[in-house]
Amino acid sequence: MLPVRMSGRAEGIAELADADDVPAESAEFSDTDDERAESAEAADTDGGKPAQYLIMVTRRGVIKRTRLSEFDNIKKGGKVALNIREGDELITVLPSDGAREIFLATEGGMGIRFPETDVRPMGRTASGVKGMTLKDGDHIVGASVADGFVLFVTENGYGKCTPVDECRNQHRGGSGIIIYKPSDRTGPVMDVCAVTQSDELMLINSDGVIIRIRVADISVQGRYAQGVKLINMGEGVTVKGIAKIKDGAEAVDVPEDATADAGGDKTRDDE
Q: Phi, psi (5° rounding) for residue 21?
């Protein structure tokens, strides 16, 4: 696993061929760090094929594809992985075999899907290129390899699975299409995840309550639907994260009202 951290250290601006390349601060790969880290499984993609590239996506819609071999022999101090523009931040890192499609989603419910080959391979210190054109006030909340279904989860605990084919293939840099319509009831989109019907997920909220949900129990709905309630939460409590989990994860009981009607097993993070 390769953790990716945000560094305040200034880096030189790389000279890139694309006009929409952006300079700025640096993100680094390191084996330890006190800052928030994004990570990617380096060995295999979700499809089981050996990963050849790491795909990095930022809050402001910048995307970068770098060969995994660029990160051989990482020392404790880390290696620069991405120059990040001031005010931007790394959202996620995806492993890829080099022949996948990428899906980006925004807080406001816009989504774009395009072949990863639209993003040319770049060196470690490059800044990346525009992956998606964002509306004023909107930003990227998640990215995934475009396989099967895309799970949307909102801050207020609503979710749905939408077939990725409903988001038509476009070219990198477009504004995308509406793929979720958030409301005051659902709250904004907080994350997305590529899933299959056999997957299971963990959701964690700001109170530290975790639930385990089978994807097969979450409604498959179209682009404009708002989904179903996945987790019951008190006033002011929001969903903070989602993750696919492996079989055999243990669970500890929590209050009965934590789980909504989507079929979740309840756990609590007591640490």
A: -65, 145
